[in-house]
Amino acid sequence: MMLGSKVGMTQIFDASGSRVPVTVLTAGPCYVTQLLSDYNAIQIGYTQIPEKALSHSKKKYFEKLQISPLKYLKEFRVSSIEQYKVGQLVTVDQFQVGQIVQVTSKSIGKGFAGTIKRHNFGRGPMAHGSKNHRAPGSIGSSATPARVYPGKKMPGRLGGKTVTIKNLIIVDIDTDNNLLIVKGSVPGKRGNLVKIA
Q: Are the CB atoms for 25 and 4 separated by under 8 Å?
């Protein structure tokens, strides 16, 4: 369990010479900032920032913990909190090559989109007589129920949502630069905060 950021995508070649698409992630270093015994969870902080960027309450919070201020704080559920302590450093050493992880991040926001782009609708005829090229068409039923059902696929905001990609295999680990290289793609743009579990 770690926080990190997306560096970008590239490709590497394995021992057999096959090309493997990979995503490079900066993972940590993170600090354990809180132990939650009620439901067995730990709070982890990532990315050090100057004190002047904090509110007064946040500044006092980190002073009490005797940890330098951190920008991101996230909770992770754990089976037991016995092996953790406040101020403990969490690094990429906890991962192993070949391990399967899941990565959560915010997908790229694409703004307001129509039904063709957003829901893969088909378009209408493109001839001159047609009045329906990219319009969604009828949305209601009839006199009964005389309303539009909730969840109807319509134009709207596309992307910009929290997405979790599971079963990503760790291909390589660079402990010197805190880099984690996973096979496949991770949602979001470069620099996005990611949760690795």
A: yes
CB-based burial, 43-65: b 16+ in 10 Å, e otherwise: ebbbbeeeeeebeeeeeebbeeb
* Cβ–Cβ < 8 Å for 98, 169: yes
Would you kindly state where each structural domain of the chain is located, as residue ranges? Answer: 2-124+154-196
Say yes or no to pLDDT of 134 above 90.
yes
**CATH architecture type of domain 2-124+154-196:** Beta Barrel (2.40)
3-state secondary structure of 59: helix
pLDDT value of position 137: 87
* Predicted confidence (pLDDT) per residue in 73-125, tens digit: 999 888 888 888 888 888 888 899 999 999 999 999 999 999 999 999 999 99
Q: How far apart are CA 174 and CA 181, in angstroms?
A: 8
